[in-house]
Design a protein that fits this description.
The protein is of the alpha+beta class. The protein is built from 2 helices and 7 strands, in the order H-E-E-E-E-E-E-E-H. It folds into 2 domains: 121 residues, SH3 type barrels, CATH 2.30.30; 47 residues.
């Protein structure tokens, strides 16, 4: 692997959210103020996605106090804590720049009513656990564990049947006493 690609691969997140243009999302972003760190939520509509790899980004637009605000977030940034899908929108274009000219309810996308809101995540890097499998002892252990389990089940079922018969006998005697 190339040196640059290996460095970029280290910077990628393991799982990224499945983002689609037109969806309304809630982005949780870390903000550092002095020596404190807090999380700020930015909710709006995704108007574009661009790039790939480490440079992949998406732009979210919302209207705050009558003014349109757009923020661009890097998908693999450590400052982006998580992205939640609030509403699935219908979009037939890759870029929704026409929403910039619209005001109020017209600035929304139509909701895809049949779609479920799912926080799907795409796995980028898979963690490989290095374990040496020992096949022969594993087969022997499985055979040994199966036999005692069957015997235990048989032992447990017998007392249950006895308890049922005792209960039936008691109920029959109780009825005779009541008469």
């Amino acid at each position: 692997m190339d040196i640059i690609k290996s460095i970029e691969h280290e910077q990628l997140k393991n799982k990224i959210p499945d983002l689609k243009v037109g969806n309304t999302v809630r982005v949780h972003q870390r903000i550092k103020e002095g020596n404190r760190e807090r999380i700020q939520v930015f909710e709006g509509t995704i108007i574009k996605k661009q790039g790939g790899g480490v440079n992949a980004s998406f732009t979210v637009r919302k209207i705050a106090y009558g003014v349109g605000v757009e923020k661009t977030f890097l998908v693999h940034s450590p400052m982006v804590e998580k992205v939640e899908v609030v509403r699935v929108g219908k979009a037939r274009r890759a870029r929704l720049y026409y929403l910039r000219d619209r005001i109020g309810k017209a600035a929304k996308t139509k909701e895809d009513t049949g779609a479920r809101i799912e926080n799907k995540e795409i796995t980028i890097k898979e963690e490989i656990s290095e374990e040496t499998p020992v096949e022969t002892p594993a087969v022997e252990n499985v055979a040994e564990t199966e036999t005692p389990v069957a015997e235990e089940v048989k032992e447990e079922t017998a007392p249950v049947e006895e308890a049922k018969t005792e209960v039936k006998e008691e109920t029959a005697t109780d009825k005779k006493e009541e008469k």
